[in-house]
Amino acid sequence: MAEEQQQVFEPPESFVKNAWIKDESVYKEGEDYRSFWAKRAEEMIDWYEKWDETLVEDPPYYKWFVGGKLNASYNCLDRWIEKGKGDKLAYIWEGEDGQVRKFTYKELHKEVNKFANVLKNLGVKKGDVVSIYLPMVPELPIAMLACARIGAPHSVVFAGFSADSLRDRMTDAGAKYVITCDGYFRRGKLIDHKTKTDEGIEGMDVKSIVVRRGGNDVNMKEGRDYWWHELMEKADETCEPEVMDAEDLLFLMYTSGTTGKPKGVMHTTGGYLVGAATTMKWVFDVKDDDVYWCTADVGWITGHSYIVYGPLALGVTSIMYEGTPDYPKPDRWWEIIEKYKVSILYTAPTAIRMCMKKGDEWVNMHDLSSLRLLGSVGEPINPEAWLWYYRVVGKERCPIVDTWWMTETGMHIITPLPGVTKLKPGSATFPFPGIKAEVRDENGVVPPGQKGELVITTPWPAMLRGLYHAHDKYVEEYWSKYGLGKFYTGDGAIIDEDGYFWLLGRVGDVLNVAGHRLGTAEVESALVDHPSVAEAAVVGVPHEIKGQVPFAYVVLRQGYSPSDELKKELIGHVSKLIGPTARPSDILFVDDLPKTRSGKIMRRILKKLASGEEQIGDTTTLQNPEIVDEIHRELKDYLNK
Ligand code: PRX
Question: With a 6 A CB cut-off, is 247 part of the ligand 1 pocket?
C-alpha cells in the first residue's frame, strides 16, 4: 500500500467541537448492551407504553423492548408536527427530468394518512403484507409509512428487478396487494414499469395501485388495477396510527443467500427503529439544519434505514433523487449538492469509483462547501477511492464514515463515529458502541493481521428476527457455522494490530455487484432455466468500477452448439428472470465443470481461473482434474481473441 494510504486521519477539531459524540466514553457505556440500548430507546423513540423487558435472549431468536408499544409512522411524522416542526422539509425530491417536489413534515403526514386510508378502504388489514414495486418516487416512502401506520408489513421489491422476481417475492410473502407505477425515467428513457408488473402478477389474485409518474399509456384491468391519484382524491385525511407491539413485523426485505431463491429477512418495529435512529444520529452526526442525502435506492435496506426510517425518526431534511449520477452530464450529483446545499452525503464505492473515472473537473466546477460529512456503504472501499472522495469531494475537511452492515443487521454495525474515530482509508474501523464482533476461523479467533470470517457476538436491536417461514434456513445461514450466539455474516475480515476492522467482501457463494447482493445460485438457476443449458457455474470476477461482476461457465445440452447469438440470448434470459444487475459479464461454454468426487462443483477453482490467477491450487482430489487444464486453455484462447 502506498504511504499516503496508510496515513491516519484525525477528526478535524471544528467537527469534534459540535459533534454529538465527542469522546470514547460511549464505548464504555456500550459494554452493558442492555442498559445501553434501553437508554437509546428512551432517548430516540416515543412509546405509547414502555417495554417490560429490554431483551429476551432465546438464541437464535432475540426479542427487544418486549411489551413496548409504538408506531413507526407516528415516530417519523406526527411527533415532529407536535413538536412544532411541521413546516420543516422532510423530503426534497428531484426527478431525473429536473422536476422538483417538496414535502414538509405536515405535507408528508397528510399524504401518509390519506394513503393509509386508501389501503384500509381496499381491505388491507393489520398483519397483511403489502408489496411495493416502485422506483425512486416520493410515493415509495409514503406507501411504506402508510403501511407502518396501519400495521401492515411492507415488502419493497427493487424496481429494477424482473417480473419473475416480483412474483416470487409476492408469493413467498403471501402479498395480496402491490403498489406500482406506469413508468419512470432512467437516463432520459421512459421505462415501462406497468407492463412488467402485469407480467409478474398475471394470474395471481391480487390488487394493484398504480402511481402516475411516466405518463405512458398503460393497460388498467378493471377490478384489479386502481390509479393512486383517483383513490387519494376520495381519501380521508386522518388515520389514527395503529398501536403496534415492539416485536410486530415492520417489513420484509428479500435478499440473496446461498440458495437459488432470495429469502425474506424480517425486521420488527421497536428494535429496528431504535437501531436506525441511533446510528443515524451518531454516525451521521445529524443536526436540525443539515441537508442529508443518501443516494441509495429505497428498494434496498440502505434506503429503508437511511432514507426513510432513520432520517424521518430524527426529523431530518433529506434529498431523494430519481436518476443516475451521470445524467444528463457527469456532474449531476455535484450540481444537486450545490443546489440544495447538501451537508451530508452517503453513497457507495462503486459510484465513487465511477465519478473518479469521469475526472475531477466535473466535481470542481461546483461549490461543494456545504458538505461536512461523507459516508460510504455497500462494499469495501479501496484506499485509492477513499482518498479521492476525501480530497476531491470533501476537500480534506469532511470525515468519511465507511459503514459496514447488511440487510440482516438493519443498521450500521462496524463504523467510525466521525467526531471520535481516527480514520484509516479502507477500514470500516470499529464496532458501534454496544456491539462486539470478532474475526474467526474453524480454530477460533484469529490473531491480528490474519484473515478470517466476521462474526457478531452480541445481539443488537435492529437485528433480523428470522427469515419469513424459513426457520431451518435461518439457523443454517447465520447460526450454524460458529454456533448459537455468534452471528455469521459471510464476510471475510482482518483485524489489524490497532484493532481496526478491514472488510474483505463475501466469502461464500454470494456476490456483491456494484453494492448489490446477488447469489451465484440465483444466476445459475436462471441459466439452467434456458432449454439449451445442461449445467452452469457462476463466479464473481473483479471489476474496476462495480467491484465484482458475475462470470458464467455453461455446459450445453446435446443438440446445442456454442455461438455468440446463444451467449447473448442467455445473458438476456438472466436479465429477464432476475434483472439487469445479474447479467453475466461473459459466458464461457465448456464441456464439463470441475467437480469433487461427491459431485460438488468446485467454484473456488473456477473463480481463480476466471480471475486470471495462475496458482489454481491442488486439483488432484477432483473427479475430473483434466477439465481444469482444458478450461484454462480455453480461457487463454478466449482472452487472446
Ligand atoms: O459484503 C458486505 C457488503 O455488503 C454486504 C451486505 O449487502 P446487503 O445486505 O445488500 O446490504 C448492503 C448495504 C448495507 C455485506 O455482507 N458491505 C456492506 N457495507 C460494506 C460492505 N463491505 C465492506 N465495507 C462496507 N462498508
Answer: no
Segment 532-543 shows an average pLDDT of: 92
By most ligand atoms within 8 Å of CB, the mutation choice from 294, 305, 503 for ligand 1 is 503
How would residue 506 be classed by pLDDT, with cut points 50, 70 and 90? confident
- Those residues with Cβ within 8 angstroms of residue 635's Cβ, 6 or more apart along the chain or in another chain: 588, 609, 610
Tell whether the model's pLDDT for residue 598 goes beyond 80.
no
Give me the residue label for grid cell 439452467.
Answer: 528
Ligand 1 site, residue 297, Cβ cutoff 6 A: no
Phi, psi of 553 (to 5 degrees): -105, 130
Decide: 494 and 75 in contact? Cβ < 8 Å. no
Look up residue 193 and give its three cell numbers. Answer: 414499469
* Residue in the structure block whose three cell numbers are 389501503: 119
Tens-digit pLDDT profile for residues 250-295:
999 999 877 778 899 999 999 999 999 999 999 999 999 999 999 9
Q: How far is CA 250 from CA 112, 128, 404, in A?
A: 16, 11, 23
Q: Round to whole Å and give the CA distance between 150 and 114.
A: 11
Ligand 1 center to 404 CA (angstroms): 6
Q: Is 157 helix (H, G, I), strand (E, B) or coil?
A: coil
Q: Cell for 44? A: 430516540
Best of 253, 350, 377 for a ligand 1 pocket test (most atoms within 8 Å of beta carbon): 377
In ligand 1, the atom with minimum distance to the C-alpha of 380 is 23
CA pair distance 538, 525, nearest whole angstrom:
10
Q: Is the Cβ–Cβ distance between 306 and 276 less than 8 Å?
A: yes
Which stretches of 162-227 are DSSP H helices?
A: 163-173, 194-201
What pLDDT does 293 receive?
98
Query: Domains in the chain, start-ordered, CATH in brackets?
Result: 510-639 (3.30.300.30)
What pTM, to 2 d.p., does this model score?
Answer: 0.92
The answer, yes or no, to whether any atom of ligand 1 lies below 6 A from the CB of 310, is no
Q: Which atom of ligand 1 is nearest to the CA of 403?
A: 26
Q: Is 503 in the pocket of ligand 1 (CB under 6 A)?
A: yes
Number of other CB atoms surrounding residue 49 within 10 Å: 12
Cα separation, 411 vs 265, in Å, equals 13
Q: Is 429 in the pocket of ligand 1 (CB under 6 A)?
A: no
Q: Locate cell 381496499: which residue?
A: 122
